[in-house]
């Protein structure tokens, strides 16, 4: 929705991973067109996807010898969830990766992931409000901790950008190892996102799952929100644009209060039969043939932005966020 020639503030620099979604839908036919590619970006060290922490019911683990025959419409994510398993463990047990396609009739081995050891207690963290001129290095030095400890505590990388007014958690001296242990077993963030952005991404994923939206549709929603608001529920924007998707009250997307309701705004973006706006606005599910559109074109069909090509840059990253948080 925003029509400024450039973002209103500099977003955090992003770790771009290869486009891959662990829950690839099992296809009965082959030859599906490849997704619209995102522009090249600097390659950074990859971090293995972390265990999901969505609060799902704990299910009894399936014995290692158990198998499952893929049915039409299945995804690795859904199969793993139904059997109380970790998606990464199922992928590894079958020699698959996050971009693999499963097909009806294929037999998958179901193997539970090894239980992670209980994390060590972490000393209470302090906070630091970023002021102009601050750097992570200077903040870490002032508090007697390592740069990596501060980065890990805040879900940042060495490519991340901090900005004035941002509050950073600063672990107590000597807590870096414990912090890193917890981060490696149950982090609250996805690569390139901080806690707030990851929380908003989880909400977009959750609502997409509830509405039966495909992984591709959810990835389009994630990339759209990143381009429009940096995955933050902004109470400002270009002209009267607001919220995660920078929807405009003057264009019929709802009152300011409704647009700032993250869940409602997300449901309005998806649209479809349950759209809170009814037929006043048109969401992704209301776009004829959106599944066959290039990533950026599908996002643009909803947003009607002055800069339609900018959505494409988030395609690969959105797939990673979905595989980690979804």
Key traits:
mainly alpha; two-stranded antiparallel sheet; Membrane-bound Lytic Murein Transglycosylase D, Chain A; 326 residues; flat; 31% helix; 4% strand; single chain; disordered N terminus
Q: Which residues sit in consecutive blocks of at least 5 with pLDDT less than 50? A: 3-65, 176-187
Task: Give the ordered list of helices and strands.
Answer: EHHEEHHEHHHHHHH
Whole-angstrom Rg:
21 Å
Content-based structural category: mainly alpha
Helix content: 25-40%
Number of strands: 4
- Overall geometric form: flat
Percent range for β-strand residues: under 5%
Number of helices: 11
Kindly, what is the distance between the CA atoms of the first and last residues, rounded to a whole number of angstroms?
26 Å
Largest sheet: 2 strands, antiparallel
> What is the average per-residue confidence, as pLDDT, rounded to a whole number?
77
Neighbour order of strands in the largest sheet: 1-2
């Amino acid at each position: 929705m925003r029509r400024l020639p450039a973002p209103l503030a500099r977003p955090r620099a992003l770790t771009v991973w290869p486009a891959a979604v662990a829950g690839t839908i099992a296809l009965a036919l082959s030859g599906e067109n490849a997704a619209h590619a995102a522009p090249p970006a600097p390659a950074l060290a990859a971090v293995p996807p972390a265990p999901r922490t969505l609060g799902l019911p704990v299910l009894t683990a399936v014995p290692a010898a158990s198998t499952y025959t893929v049915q039409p419409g299945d995804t690795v994510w859904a199969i793993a969830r139904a059997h109380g398993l970790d998606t990464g463990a199922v992928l590894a047990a079958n020699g698959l990766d996050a971009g693999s396609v499963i097909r009806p009739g294929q037999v998958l081995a179901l193997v539970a992931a090894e239980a992670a050891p209980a994390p060590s207690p972490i000393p209470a963290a302090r906070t630091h409000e970023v002021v102009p001129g601050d750097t992570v290095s200077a903040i870490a030095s002032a508090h007697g901790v390592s740069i990596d400890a501060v980065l890990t505590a805040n879900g940042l990388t060495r490519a991340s950008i901090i900005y004035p007014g941002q509050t950073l958690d600063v672990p107590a001296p000597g807590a870096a190892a414990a912090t890193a242990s917890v981060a490696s077993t149950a982090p609250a963030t996805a690569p390139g996102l901080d806690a707030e952005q990851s929380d908003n991404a989880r909400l977009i994923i959750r609502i997409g799952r509830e509405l039966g939206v495909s992984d591709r549709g959810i990835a389009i929603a994630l990339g759209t929100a990143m381009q429009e608001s940096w995955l933050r529920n902004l109470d400002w924007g270009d002209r009267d644009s607001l919220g995660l998707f920078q929807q405009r009250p003057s264009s019929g997307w709802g009152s300011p209060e409704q647009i700032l309701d993250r869940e409602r705004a997300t449901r309005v973006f998806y649209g479809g039969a349950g759209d809170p706006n009814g037929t006043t606005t048109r969401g992704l599910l209301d776009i004829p043939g959106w599944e066959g559109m290039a990533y950026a074109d599908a996002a643009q069909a909803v947003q009607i932005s002055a800069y339609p090509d900018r959505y494409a840059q988030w395609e690969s990253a959105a797939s990673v966020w979905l595989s980690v948080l979804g």
